[in-house]
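User: Sequence recovery, please. Input:
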């Protein structure tokens, strides 16, 4: 298959117009040997002679005359294509398919998406919500371009950008405990309701407790549920206490449906992360959305 470098054609067109290698050299800010190399390579690729060299004078051959008009068309097409791609880079429209763990997907993304859509009305969203582990796994398999998760990924192929800080708090039903201030050791004596193992909240909770010398083996687990809403319903029903994202219980705390138990000897914080595959190039729409997320995070 014939492959011709567009730069060879640009040099050829300039030499053809100027009827001189030296004047083409001045026009293109290239050395004469470089000009000669471009023309020589093009002649080899096309298997023909393009210029007759008569001392310092060059005369285009018949084949050069045929090539000249076609070369102009090809260069123009290349410039048009470059402009079209440049415009496409600036356009912000289409569908954003995002994977998100429960907390950011349910409690943070909706308002962020609404603000983004006010700026870019031609954008639509599809959000796939699962636990952090599955979101990272799907991105690593190239089935998603972008995700937001509640724990730092351990996959070497996954690039992560710190998003916003989240506070994990202990909550109970208003009538389940006598004191709403206690130590961690006092807390772990109470029955606890947990998220499933793949949950970012569960993983960060285990990491924080482990740092204080507490493992789940010594905790009375009253129930394990696959969603934050299910955990909240279990806590409301008095099944036990739970450690949840403060973002997920804002309404319940405000309306006194749940009560926060303050721990006096530990603060439980974590970050959310924007995640993507190290080897993937994001479309402009996704890049613009990431910029928006990072900007909006200052207001959350």
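Assistant: Recovered sequence (300 residues):
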């Amino acid at each position: 298959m014939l492959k011709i470098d567009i730069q060879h054609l640009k040099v050829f067109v300039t030499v053809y117009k100027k009827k001189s290698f030296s004047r083409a050299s001045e026009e293109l800010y290239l050395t004469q040997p470089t000009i000669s190399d471009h023309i020589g390579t093009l002649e080899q690729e096309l298997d023909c002679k393009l210029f007759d060299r008569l001392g310092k004078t060059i005369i285009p051959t018949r084949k050069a005359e045929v090539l000249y008009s076609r070369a102009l068309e090809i260069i123009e097409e290349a410039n048009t294509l470059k402009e079209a791609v440049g415009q496409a880079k600036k356009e912000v429209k289409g569908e954003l398919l995002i994977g998100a763990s429960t907390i950011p997907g349910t409690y943070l993304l909706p308002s962020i998406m609404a603000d983004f859509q006010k700026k870019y009305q031609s954008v639509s969203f599809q959000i796939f919500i699962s636990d952090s582990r599955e979101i990272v796994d799907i991105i690593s398999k190239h089935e998603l371009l972008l995700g937001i998760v509640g724990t730092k990924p351990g996959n070497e192929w996954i690039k992560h950008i710190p998003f916003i800080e989240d506070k994990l708090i202990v909550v109970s039903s208003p009538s389940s405990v006598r004191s709403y201030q206690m130590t961690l050791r006092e807390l772990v004596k109470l029955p606890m309701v947990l998220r499933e193992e793949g949950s970012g909240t569960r993983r960060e909770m285990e990491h924080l407790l482990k740092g204080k010398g507490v493992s789940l083996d010594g905790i009375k687990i009253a129930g394990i549920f696959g969603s934050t809403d299910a955990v909240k319903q279990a806590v409301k029903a008095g099944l036990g206490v739970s450690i949840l994202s403060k973002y997920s219980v804002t309404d319940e705390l405000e309306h006194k449906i749940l009560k926060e138990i303050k721990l006096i000897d530990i603060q439980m914080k974590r970050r959310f992360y924007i995640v993507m595959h190290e080897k993937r190039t994001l479309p402009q729409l996704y890049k613009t959305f990431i910029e928006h997320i990072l900007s909006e995070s200052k207001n959350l």
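The longest helix spans residues 62-90.
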